[in-house]
Specification:
The structure is a homodimer. With about 300 residues, chain A is of the alpha+beta class. Helices cover about 30% and strands about 25% of the residues of chain A. Chain A has ten helices and twelve strands. In chain A, the strands form two sheets. Chain A has a seven-stranded mixed sheet with strand order 7-9-6-10-8-11-12, sandwiched between helices. In chain A, strands 1-2-5-3-4 form a five-stranded mixed sheet. In chain A, helix 3 runs parallel beside helix 4 and helix 3 packs parallel to helix 7 (about 185-195). The longest helix of chain A has 17 residues, at about 60-75. The radius of gyration of chain A is 19 Å and the shape is globular. In chain A, about 55% of the residues are buried. The interface between A and B is large, with 68 and 68 residues.
């Protein structure tokens, strides 16, 4: 029997493409030298049945496709330049819903100060939105250029979206983070300017990103007590019979930035952040639990919101 | 009953988006001032059931998504800079077919000298490929900046793809044009340099493009005898009970460039081309038939390959 694409998984498909193209930047986002600066470009496609929870509004769908793309610019510390939208919708979609979706896109473009400069419309059996974000950056922050001793930090709360996806209520901080995450574009620029050594955005979960950026001979130590997990968060998880650390480490969709920075540069960083660990020479990704035990962090992430 | 998107059509959807975004270039392709030059960017999405004939190979599908995007660069006379690919495939797609598709993309990138610089992979119920082509151009050719008296010309044979879609054989010039059209990137650059006054690519048919680029008070006169319709072409159409002029005017998918140029600049144009008419002050789009009669050309094009 012949192999199917599902037999090897998305990461291997990407590897096949990258291994056959010499020009692809070994990061999540393309960098093209241009005069004294760099053009940063990234494309991400969202598909209704895979990426949008059922309770998500059309407005939030449109907003999110901008966020996921702009988040890749943010991770490099890039300044937004322009956004392109290629969208396909079912022909029986209400015109009002279509307009709401486009209003979400435009509202996000406005929020991130990235103009919508072009695109394409199409018909498909479900909503498919592909965005391309373009940005400029003279010295892009790469994802794995840290040094031993750098602290590891995040730009905000992680695990909130993960919990939000499991809640039926509409109006709390977790659900809001799940339905309308925000890309950290200003924070990315601040990180680059203040001397951060690397950055990436957390889409597939902290664990997955740490393994993704890990280089040979380098390791990461994360401290549970620094992750900012509130009593309320734990209580929600207990009520839902969910493991709170699992949600914080292995789900993602928060679009916070995970970054490294020398400790003595932290004082130049004029944004909210939370130090959660440090870069080590252990060659493993591990966590010190609140009870003092050290465990390794599995390389396991949520590829997408919707389980299959 | 509420209005559906199908009630107003793709062009009206695009109008809604454009009317709500001040930053969209009033052309088919985005132009962003970039130092002393311009960044040209364009996104086009192709969907298997709508854009790919059944007899199209995976290789040709991959090739075509690059062609349709690069063709928009060609129409501006831009130099290719980079290509981004966002692709979704069914999970039961053969791995070999996936690789063939990617090889088609890479082969086209090689052919057009446009590096594949990034992208995204996904899963969907059918093959969906969204491309973004980036280019550079100091003085982009717009689509409607012609003057009265300019000649109207095309870079190659038109109507060939239209006939090819109707033929069952695999190995002739028409079917090849239908399954593997080529974008006219070198020709676009030559047009810009030689003083062409406007250009656009023919995707939805000559008639549709002429109406698309028509400004108030300007008109176009096309001459049937200049369209290069061969006896063989007419014979094929007669055998298939198709109206040859209908195929040439109203189908498209050839990806040739339609351009205007002052007659005295033609001598600087070092590419193959065919003059087919002239810009007039008639305010109508019309054709002089071979029998001497003049008819108006309807604004009717094929939105996509697949009829619904």
């Amino acid at each position: 029997m012949s192999l199917k694409v599902s037999d090897i998984g998305e990461k291997e498909l990407v590897k096949y493409i990258i291994s056959n193209s010499k020009e692809i930047t070994p990061d999540d986002t393309a960098i093209t030298k241009f005069g004294s600066t760099n053009l940063i470009s990234t494309s991400d496609m969202l598909i209704q049945s895979r990426h949008f929870p059922e309770n998500m509004s059309y407005f939030d769908m449109g907003f999110k496709v901008v966020t996921v793309n702009v988040s890749d610019l943010a991770a490099m510390g890039a300044e937004p330049l322009g956004f392109l939208l290629a969208i396909a919708v079912p022909k029986d979609l209400d015109l009002d819903s279509f307009k709401e979706l486009i209003d979400g896109v435009l509202s996000a473009c406005d929020y991130y100060s990235i103009p919508l400069i072009g695109g394409d419309t199409n018909e498909a059996s479900e909503i498919i939105i592909s965005g391309t974000a373009l940005g400029l950056c003279d010295r892009p922050l790469m994802m794995d250029t840290y040094s031993i001793g750098d602290v590891i930090a995040v730009t905000g709360d992680i695990g909130h979206a993960a919990l939000g996806f499991n809640l039926d209520v509409l109006d709390n901080v977790y659900v809001k983070k799940a339905l309308k995450p925000l890309a950290r574009i200003k924070e990315g620029i601040a990180l680059r300017k203040s001397g951060a050594t690397s950055a990436t955005d957390i889409t597939d979960g902290l664990a997955s990103e740490l393994h993704h950026i890990k280089r040979d001979l380098f390791g990461f130590m994360i401290y549970e007590e620094l992750l900012g997990i509130s009593d309320e968060y734990r209580q929600y998880c207990e009520n839902l019979d969910l493991n709170y650390l699992d949600l914080v480490l292995h789900v993602g969709e928060d679009f916070e930035l995970l970054f490294t920075i020398p400790k003595d540069r932290l004082k130049y960083l004029d944004i909210d952040y939370r130090v959660i660990g440090e870069v080590t020479d252990s060659d493993v990704v591990e966590i010190t639990l609140e009870n003092g035990f050290v465990e390794s962090i599995e390389n396991r992430g949520y590829e997408h919101y919707v389980c299959e």
